[in-house]
Automatic annotation (TrEMBL):
Membrane-crossing segments per the record: 6-21, 28-52, 64-85
UniProt-recorded name of the protein: Uncharacterized protein
Transmembrane helix keyword on record: yes
Keywords: Membrane, Transmembrane, Transmembrane helix
Length: 92
């Protein structure tokens, strides 16, 4: 289940940041958007998993920490994807 959440976060943040990069052609902002989306989605999923799963409340938040540790890894992969995307250039 956690891997599907990580994949969902990766896909959503990649799509939105690439669309922003193609529209505005600002790589730094698109990287910040990717980081922000990954953080929001994965932190919310961690909180929701802890809130819903009774076993996790008893044993602690250890198992769902995979989602928190995935934030920098997924963001790093997003940054690599953004380096290969051609932004809308200024035509003279």
């Amino acid at each position: 289940m956690y891997y599907s959440i990580i994949l969902f976060s990766f896909m959503i943040s990649t799509i939105i940041s690439v669309l922003f990069l193609k529209k505005k052609s600002r790589k730094l902002w698109s990287m910040l958007i990717a980081f922000g989306l990954n953080t929001v989605i994965l932190a919310f999923a961690t909180w929701l998993s802890y809130y819903i799963d009774e076993e996790e409340r008893i044993s602690g938040i250890g198992q769902s920490m995979i989602l928190i540790f995935a934030i920098p890894i997924v963001t790093w992969v997003n940054f690599f994807v953004l380096t290969f995307v051609k932004s809308k250039g200024i035509k003279v």
